[in-house]
Design brief:
The chain has 330 residues and is α/β, with parallel strands linked by helices. It has 13 helices and seven strands. It has two domains: 116 residues, no CATH class; 136 residues. The N terminus is likely disordered.
Length: 330
């Protein structure tokens, strides 16, 4: 099928008019599918990489109280050595090395765990001793964040204690954090961007779900850069499992509040740009079977809606992928 330039223009206008639909892919029948599921814990790891100071100040404020302001943050190697080649890696364990104004070093070992059945305190102990050996001058503080939104019938093992009489042979514990134990309403006015990202992971009354998600968007928008907002607003959508009707309710509510009108417009613009990007890539994949990663990155990196409309036209009219690339480069 060949489309005329006028038909392409009409299609572009129709697609752009859809507005805010969130990150999604197109099905064979043209319906929009739910966003592809990603590993939530891996995304949380990225959030801690972007907001390490905010994470420590929120979850372990005793460190700042004892050692003063944070002067430097480093990220050492992220996996301990395997004891055997067949051992599974601890890819979600993340060490963060803080240096404080009083010269104290603190090595914070963070593990993210969505499935508590897979948690092992012995694995955390092994990791902590390995990292303590590698950083002898640091105070090692292991922490485990449980991210599932459920009430537990049975707790996880919180400590290991081997002793006989007055002799203690081994005592080990970790910083236990279960996000669902936090009440999201207590953090509505927090100035910590990481806390705002994680609001929908906390507990809240069912009738406040839309309000909680709105607060997460608003906090992220007000407390971070545009780049970080772009990075994490879709993450909130995915792990909070925001449905389309909820998106519509959220957008209406944002538009009705004076303090969030700008955020509503930003989200609508973002939705139009995402839809335009998806349509460009859909046309290229349909016409040319596969699209090189550099082309996909170029399309996804374009934030100008006019340019994306031009790309869509050229994608439909181009005779080959090389022709499209030449036109885009020019």
């Amino acid at each position: 099928m060949v489309l005329s330039a006028s038909a392409v223009e009409a299609g572009v206008v129709a697609c752009v008019a859809e507005g805010w639909k969130g990150s999604a892919v197109m099905g064979d029948d043209g319906d929009r599918l739910r966003p592809m599921r990603e590993n939530h814990d891996q995304n949380l790891k990225n959030a801690f990489l972007d907001f390490p100071k905010e994470a420590l100040e929120w979850l372990f404020p005793e460190a700042v109280d004892a050692f003063g302001k944070i002067r430097r943050v480093e990220f050492p190697r992220q996996e301990p050595k395997k004891r055997r080649l067949s051992d599974r890696g601890l890819s979600l364990d993340m060490p963060i090395l803080f240096e404080f104004e009083r010269k104290q070093l603190l090595l914070w070992l963070v593990e993210f765990q969505e499935d508590k059945a897979k948690f092992s305190i012995y694995k955390v102990l092994m990791y902590a001793t390995e990292m303590a050996e590698a950083h002898p001058g640091a105070l090692v503080v292991p922490a485990v964040l449980f991210t599932d939104r459920t009430r537990w019938r049975k707790d996880v093992k919180r400590e290991i204690d081997f002793r006989l009489g007055r002799r203690v042979f081994l005592h080990f514990e970790y910083l236990f954090v279960k996000l669902f134990d936090y009440d999201a309403r207590d953090y509505f006015h927090s100035k910590n961007p990481l806390v705002k990202i994680l609001l929908p992971k906390m507990w809240y009354p069912a009738e406040m779900r839309v309000e909680v998600i709105m607060r997460a968007y608003q906090g992220l928008f007000e407390l971070t850069s545009a780049a970080l907002f772009e990075k994490y607003v879709d993450f909130i959508d995915v792990y909070a499992d925001v449905r389309q009707e909820e998106r519509d309710d959220i957008l209406r509510a944002l538009e009705e509040r004076k303090e969030t009108v700008m955020l509503a417009e930003y989200i609508k613009d973002k939705g139009r740009i995402e839809v335009a990007r998806e349509n460009v890539l859909e046309v290229l994949n349909t016409k040319f079977s596969s699209v090189p990663i550099e082309v996909s990155e170029s399309v996804n990196g374009t934030t100008d809606l006019v340019e994306l409309k031009k790309m869509l036209k050229q994608g439909v009219l181009a005779n080959s992928l090389s022709d499209f690339i030449k036109i885009v480069k020019n």
